[in-house]
Amino acid sequence: MKEIFEGSSSRLYLVDNVYPRIDELNVEPTRKVIQEVFEEHIIHAPGMDHIRDMVSGNIIPTPAGVMEATKVLFEFLGDVITVDVGGATTDIHSVTEGSEEISRIMISPEPRAKRTVEGDLGVYVNADNVIEIATREKIAGALNLSENQLEELINGHKPIPKSALEKSFVEELTRTACHTAALRHAGDITYMYSTAGRKRAAIGKDLTAVKVIVGTGGALTRLPGREDILRSIARDLSKDKLLPNEDARILIDNHYIMASIGVLSKTHFEESLLFLKQSLNIMD
Fold it and tell me: Which residues contact 149 (CB under 8 A, 6 or more apart)?
């Protein structure tokens, strides 16, 4: 690849193989280069040309900041996932090695820290996609609305809900976004056939050892039903999805600061942990 790009005007970044050998992942070198490229290009975004006049340290995008904060929580609370529902995307951040039971049948390695960003699942910009997944019939039934009443509610959908009905509507969208994103992020139990017969196997990210589910983002830090929405992630009836158990602890980023805390943690770990405890209402 290096030879192919010689003489090209395109810049080539060379990193170690992310999958150097069977059953081994090496993703951190690539993540480091992606971060460096982001910092190089962010100054060209609208309104960001003077950011280096104000910031001397790393410039970290919001999803990466939330992931760093989730890593801090892992050091304190153990296996954890953070769910961030926004107007345009729904992000799942997991930090877990998975359970011993599943690890014995896992057929491909997964990183301990993994993030998925679902660009079609948002409760405002991409609300139409979420409505299609949830279906109008189910939303109308949950809100006890007629078809015409639901259409009026959809047409008048605002970035920030005000009335009780508007909040209930966004809760239904958030529930669908959370559930769909979690199903996409989590791995599966599958079955393989060999000369020894049918064997049970696992593929993808194992969340069964997760004991803490954290909610952040505008929807999951402000909606009245946020805790029940997060708890519903573990209520999937499919026995083949590697989701958390229903006894997982639910925590809310009440101060909505996880992204900022993730940046702070790079240089002030203890202080970032203190702020996280305060926001999550965790008592020592």
Answer: 140
Strand order in the sheet with 212-216: 113-118, 90-95, 80-85, 212-216, 249-252
Q: Are 212 and 195 in contact (CB under 8 A)?
A: no
The radius of gyration of the chain from alpha carbons, rounded to an integer in Å, stands at 21
pLDDT digits (tens, 9 = 90+) for 41-99: 877 788 888 888 888 877 888 889 999 999 999 999 999 999 999 999 999 999 999 99
Give the burial class of 9: count Cβ atoms within 10 A of its Cβ; 0-12 exposed, 13-18 middle, 19 or more buried.
exposed
The first and second tokens of residue 30, run together, are 């690539």
C-beta separation of 179 from 65 below 8 A: no
Cβ-Cβ contacts under 8 Å for 188 (sequence gap 6 or more): 202, 203, 204, 240, 241, 242
Backbone angles phi, psi at 54, to 5 degrees: -110, -25
- Amino acid type, 161: P
